[in-house]
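Protein modeling request. Please complete all fields; requests missing the sequence field cannot be processed.
Requester role: graduate student
Desired output: 3D structure, token encoding
Chains: 1
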Amino acid sequence: MTWPSDEVLSAYLEEALPVAQLAMIERQLRDDVELRKRLATVIGRQDAGLHSVGVIWRRNRLSCPSRDQLGQYLLGVLDSGPAEYIRFHLENVGCRYCAANHDDLRSSGPVGTDSIAADGSDQPLIRRRRYFETSAGHLKRN
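Delivered output (142 residues):
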């Protein structure tokens, strides 16, 4: 199988790859006539309505965590399994949609393990308290 595969080229067209991979494919497209022909074939299949499972999976973002889950990840309140998956999804898969949501949530206010923000405010403590207050009715009792 040649790299990039047709699935990767399809993800390239949707700009659903990490930036480094997008740039690498773009450089290859400039120099490789055969790769440009393959890309044209992939475009033709998509225009004809022939979509792979991978395309449908990416378009519907079936493996992406929700924005709420990303917020919980930033707060450090997720169990280790889901937290590890989100870390893998952001760092290894390189999902640009989730990275954008993650960055947006992180920049919307100081969250995380620090109890006091860099500016000395107690925003993280307030946010964490509100988070638990709104979740109280949804927690299971043992």
